[in-house]
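Run log, item B.
One chain of 239 residues. Sequence copied directly from the ordering sheet:
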Amino acid sequence: MNYIILNGYASIGVQGLIVQELPPITKPQIRSNIETIDGRDGDIITRLGYSAYTKTFTIGLKKDANIDEVISYFSQNDSGRITFSNEPDLYYNFELLDPIDFERLIRFRQAKISIHVQPFKYSLKEGNTEFFLPSDKVIIITNSGNIYSKPVLQIRGYGDVNVSLNGVQIFTINFSTARPEVITIDSAQMEAYDDSGLRNRSVSGNYSRFKFNAGRNALKFSGSGIVSQVLVENYSRWL
């Protein structure tokens, strides 16, 4: 049976709602800039990253469908995370930008829904994972996906801490020396923050270089400070 899960709520729990057809599994297009120079053969192609794109699926109604519950299901979950039953262990980040024709759904008992999805997929199982910090202060993290990831790193520490990835120093974090505190580094958003707000002044380094390659990655902590806890989110990513 086909189904979708919107923000943790499965469509099979909505009375009378049927997912008749799922979108095919496809890869996002690469955005590129093509430049032609007079007097030079060919052109210059610069790859700019992957594009968000549209996925379309078809829903239907059983005879006993509760149309108010169906409308509420999609209206209250118009953005966030979506999982399709043909990729049951992964989720996409999505926005429902195009209005759903509920009048057509009621009249013909069928409608197509198009959603705007970001180019990458993430694991439902990984979540925000705590990694044990051994005596050598090196954590091995495996990106199980098929492309580099831009993780979220949450560190509890004290004093000045250097963060290196695969042998290259990326960040220096200036924690408080008065007490341990938690700072989160979001490499995709290129920001550092804690519960009180932004902490960009406490973190120096190159966010664009903080990427986990597909496969094994070594995350090392050094410096005069102390790290007592490390949590990592979104460390595996798929196209």
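Observations after the first pass:
- The first strand starts at residue 4 and ends at 6.
- Residues 13 and 165 are 43 Å apart (CA to CA).
Flagged for discussion on Thursday.
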